Amino acid sequence: MVKGQVLLKLGGIDSRNQGQELAGSFLYLPFEERVKLPEGHYFVDDLKTCTVLTTNGEAVGELVEIWHLPSNDVFLVQGPDQKTIMVPALKEIIKTIDLQKRLIIVEEWGIVR
Fold first, then answer.
1. Would you say the C-alpha torsion 33, 37, 43, 49 has a positive or negative sign?
2. Domain assignments of the chain as residue spans, ordered by start
3. How does residue 113 score in pLDDT terms, banded at 50, 70 and 90?
4. Which CATH code fits 44-110?
5. Which residue of 12, 55, 69, 101 is surrounded by the most CB atoms within 10 Å?
């Protein structure tokens, strides 16, 4: 990192001018080449569309977005009534994340409706 910027060297791009032509472009990585994250860490795209339930089994909705805030991440869940529900992504509130079942279990008291 240099002054908050990521430096990246791409094959075949050997000058600053060639690199500038790619400014604003997207960089894609094949799914199979993603790094393996430590246990308890997840890619945002893996969490999106997971069903969110409370520990009591109440359906909260579907995870649609994650806000990365200074204090902690916040899961934005679209409820059955199409209202957005906020769930702070804290260990005390997020009890289980099961990517195979596409399910996130949260404490009822942690939900901001």
1. positive
2. 44-110
3. confident
4. 2.30.30.240
5. 55
